[in-house]
C-alpha cells in the first residue's frame, strides 16, 4: 500500500485533483481516511495499472490505466464528500493532526465507517 500511495497522489496532483467546489488535490490525510473505500472500489483499475507497470518499464505505456485509477479515486471521493462529509472531514482532520497515525483516530474512523461503510 505504501509504495503505491505516492503514485496515486502524484496522479491526482497531475490531473488537478479537483472535486466539485475544491481547488486543490486531496491531502494525504483524505486519502488515508478513504483508503479502505479506495482499495475496494478502485481495485480493478489499480490492479490493471500495476500489471501494466510490471509488464512495461516505459511509464508512458500505462498512462491510460493510471488515468482510470485517478478517475476512480476522484469519483469515489466526490461521492464520499456528498454522502458523509462531516464524518470524513472529522476523520481526515484527526489524521492530519496526528500525522496520519491511524491508531490515534479510531473513534473518528468508526464514525466514518458507520456513516459510509466500505464496500
Tell me about this structure:
It is a single chain. This protein has 119 residues and is an all-alpha fold. Helix content is 71%, strand content 0%. It has six helices and no strands. Helix 4 (43-55) packs across helix 5 (63-97) and helix 5 (63-97) crosses helix 6. Mean pLDDT is 85; it is low at 1-9 and 17-23.
Give a brief description.
It is built from 6 helices and no strands.
Question: What secondary-structure arrangement, pairings included, does this model have?
Answer:
Elements: H1 2-14, H2 28-33, H3 35-41, H4 43-55, H5 63-97, H6 106-115
Helix pairs in contact: 4-5, 5-6
Could you list the spans in which at least 5 consecutive residues all have pLDDT below 50?
A: 1-9, 17-23
What is the helix fraction of residues, given as a range?
over 70%
Number of helices: 6
The outline comes out as elongated
Amino acid at each position: 500500500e505504501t509504495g503505491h500511495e505516492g503514485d496515486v497522489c502524484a496522479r491526482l496532483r497531475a490531473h488537478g485533483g479537483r472535486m466539485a467546489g475544491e481547488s486543490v488535490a486531496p491531502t494525504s490525510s483524505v486519502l488515508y481516511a478513504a483508503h479502505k473505500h479506495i482499495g475496494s472500489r478502485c481495485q480493478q483499475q489499480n490492479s490493471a495499472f500495476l500489471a501494466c507497470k510490471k509488464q512495461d518499464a516505459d511509464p508512458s505505456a500505462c498512462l491510460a490505466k493510471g488515468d482510470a485509477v485517478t478517475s476512480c479515486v476522484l469519483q469515489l471521493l466526490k461521492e464520499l464528500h456528498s454522502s458523509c462529509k462531516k464524518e470524513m472531514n472529522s476523520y481526515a482532520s484527526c489524521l492530519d493532526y496526528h500525522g496520519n497515525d491511524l491508531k490515534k483516530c479510531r473513534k473518528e474512523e468508526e464514525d466514518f465507517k458507520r456513516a459510509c461503510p466500505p464496500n
